[in-house]
Amino acid sequence: MSVLFFKRFLQRPFQVASIIPSSKALVERVASKMDFSKPRVIAEYGPGEGVHSREIARRMHPGSTLLLFELDPDFSRDLERQFVDNPRVQVVHGDAAQLPAELQRRGIKLCDYVLSGIPFSILDIEKKRALLQKTYDAIAPGGSFIIYQVTNELRQHATLFQHGESEYFLQNIPPMFVTVFNKVNTRNGYGHPAAKPVMRVPVNHAA
After folding, report:
1. What angle do CA 9, 87, 117 make, to 5 degrees?
2. Short-list 6, 108, 104, 5, CA closest to 47
3. Integer Cα distance of 76 and 99 in angstroms
4. Percent of the chain residues past pLDDT 70, beyond the cut
5. How many Å apart are CA 195 and CA 184, to the nearest integer?
6. By three-state DSSP, how is residue 206 classified?
7. What is the distance of C-alpha 172 from the center of its chain?
8. For domain 3-195, which CATH number applies: 3.40.190.10, 1.10.530.10, 3.40.50.150, 3.40.920.10?
């Protein structure tokens, strides 16, 4: 665990949400939900010190774009330093709600995947629903919204998405619910191939 991550947890425990970064096993499981076989547009909310970001950047197609939305200025600067030589990765020092505006500014129509580890449970209901709406609108048909959270309460709010499946992933401290919400492609009824979880464990209640 980096000193910066621990310092930020002590200063802003609800914003950072966990005392240690995601485990290697969780990072690999989350990345397995995405199809990297072709160019993708991927956005990540609250990347923190970038453990998921680095794995996505390592796996993604050369023609892909990864947008990192980080509100914390120190984390943002650290991410910019990490990816200074990778033009496919762009750091946005700002709120996740800026996603639609940032896509438009870059001439990008829609995202294929949006990944989030931010603690949605601490957001008030109106902000939560507004961010879910913006996220849904920014995802292409067939794309996915992938979250990892200590609770599964977001399922009851993410009703915009036509399909969602969760698994309780124990190989992390703390254990996490990993949920994939799919925006159904009306042409074939499915999302990207990798959007289907490796272990399909439907969870219909909030933790």
Report:
1. 30
2. 5
3. 16
4. 80
5. 11
6. coil
7. 17
8. 3.40.50.150
Q: Average pLDDT in the 72-101 region?
A: 96
The whole-model pTM stands at 0.83
**Structure-token match 């191939």, residue found:** 193
Q: How far apart are CA 74 and CA 44, in angstroms?
A: 17
Q: To which H or E segment does residue 91 belong? A: strand 89-93
- For the chain, give every domain's residue range: 3-195
Name the residue with tokens 């990072």. Answer: 27
Characterize the bridge pairing of strands 139-149 and 176-182. antiparallel
pLDDT given for residue 141 in this prediction: 96
| 3-class secondary structure, 106 | coil
pLDDT in tens, 19-72: 478 999 999 999 999 999 999 999 999 999 999 999 999 999 999 999 999 999
